[in-house]
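Ops channel
N.P.: pipeline sanity check, posting one input/output pair.
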């Protein structure tokens, strides 16, 4: 069983990774949303081709962010699953590391939801680029 210090260190490293991934997504989101709002049916084939190329490039960046968040999720799931086996199902709050376990599970849920949102957004950008 890992100690609370080990779990805390792992959480700190994973949180640092998440900060960079979320910051990158936060920088991409306004740019991509603005490009999705543009009317691509306006005249000018060069503008439409450039916009489609830009959307395809942004879709690839989103796929990269999705891969990074999935890898972080894989890092979290193994210790979370292992730690779940050490908790009592009848009285989980009696365990001395309950705060670290709770944080680990909340981070795992957050990363899973973040991954799903990124994949949905990448599909939306990809379908707009294919039009």
């Amino acid at each position: 069983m890992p100690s609370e210090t080990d779990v805390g260190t792992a959480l700190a490293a994973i949180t640092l990774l998440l900060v960079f991934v979320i910051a990158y997504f936060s920088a991409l989101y306004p740019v991509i949303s603005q490009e999705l709002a543009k009317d691509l049916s306006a005249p000018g084939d060069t503008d439409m081709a450039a916009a489609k190329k830009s959307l395809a490039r942004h879709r690839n960046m989103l796929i990269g962010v999705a891969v990074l968040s999935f890898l972080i999720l894989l890092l979290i799931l193994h210790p979370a699953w292992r730690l779940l086996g050490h908790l009592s199902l009848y009285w989980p709050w009696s365990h001395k590391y309950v705060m670290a376990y709770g944080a680990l599970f909340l981070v795992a849920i957050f990363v899973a939801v973040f991954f799903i949102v990124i994949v949905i957004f990448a599909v939306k950008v990809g379908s707009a680029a294919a039009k």
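N.P.: looks fine end to end. The two ends are 53 Å apart (CA to CA).
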